Amino acid sequence: MVTHFPSTAISCTEAAPCNVQLVRIGASDSENGYPDSATPVLRNVHISAQLVEVFLEIARENTKKDLETCGVLGAFLKEETLYATTLIVPKQESTSTSCQALKEEEIFNIQNERSLFPVGWIHTHPSQTCFMSSIDLHTQYPYQVMVPEAVAVVVAPTDKTRSYGIFRLTDSNGMSVLGGCEEKGFHPHPDSADGRPLYEQCSHVYVNPNLRFEIFDLR
Ligand SMILES: [Zn+2]
Ligand SMILES: [Zn+2]
């Protein structure tokens, strides 16, 4: 099934950058108090302002049953900006605290046919707060190896303080810890000596109200 959202909005993907109100997510590293000298210069990522809302709707049946839902974001590159215009909802297996994509070749096929960058993933926490679990950090790692700008969007409808977050592994700490960790399942990761977090809120992501995206629901 392929659906276009928003169906009536003008597609801005042809004439980027658009003259629209963009909302930048998160704060820069220096504003966080964690200047990260290992961070490469990241290209900006635009996501649709409807993405979270539409994904919650897609996830609704699972959320009612306290099951997670996951999806993969594909983006095209134009003038050094990545536009996340494709949401692929793969066949999947989930619990209340985890979600595993099945038949990943179906995801790759769609991305390859359209020359899309795997720019990250989105998943729900139906009953947990908005954070990155150790399993989430491991899921994020290969995305960020492939595309340094890749993001993890966590949607937590029951979290009263933050209903969604857009995260990435820190380059100086998260990438090296996760790259060297062979554990599976939920497990603690060592704190770094200087207190640097393993992940951070993205400061290179913009919420674009006019960005059109399409959905491939493979379930
Ligand atoms: Zn999670
Ligand atoms: Zn680990």
- Write out the distinct hetero groups bound to the structure: zinc ion
What is the straight-line distance between the termini?
9 Å
- CATH topology heading: Cytidine Deaminase, domain 2
Total number of helical segments? 5
- Give me the CATH superfamily: Cytidine Deaminase, domain 2
Order of secondary-structure elements: EEHEHEEEEHEHEEHEEE
Query: What is the helix content?
Result: 10-25%
**Whole-number radius of gyration?**
17 Å
**Known CATH architecture:** 3-Layer(aba) Sandwich
State the shape: globular
Q: Determine the mean pLDDT.
A: 88
Q: Low-confidence spans: pLDDT under 50, at least 5 residues?
A: 7-18, 28-33
The main β sheet shows up as: 11 strands, mixed
Approximate strand percentage:
25-35%
**Total individual domains:** 1
Query: Structural class, please?
Result: alpha/beta
Characterise this structure.
This protein is an alpha/beta fold and 219 residues long. The chain has a single domain (2-8, 23-33, 40-183, 195-217), classed as Cytidine Deaminase, domain 2 (3-Layer(aba) Sandwich). Helix content is 21%, strand content 30%. It has 5 helices and 13 strands. Strand 9 and strand 10 form a beta hairpin. The site of one zinc ion (ZN) has 6 residues, from helix 4.
What's the SSE blueprint?
Blueprint: E1 2-5, E2 23-24, H1 29-32, E3 44-48, H2 51-64, E4 70-78, E5 81-89, E6 92-94, E7 99-101, H3 104-113, E8 117-124, H4 134-146, E9 151-155, E10 164-169, H5 174-179, E11 199-201, E12 205-208, E13 213-217
Parallel strand pairs: 3-5, 3-12, 5-13, 8-9
Antiparallel strand pairs: 1-13, 2-12, 4-5, 4-8, 6-7, 9-10, 10-11
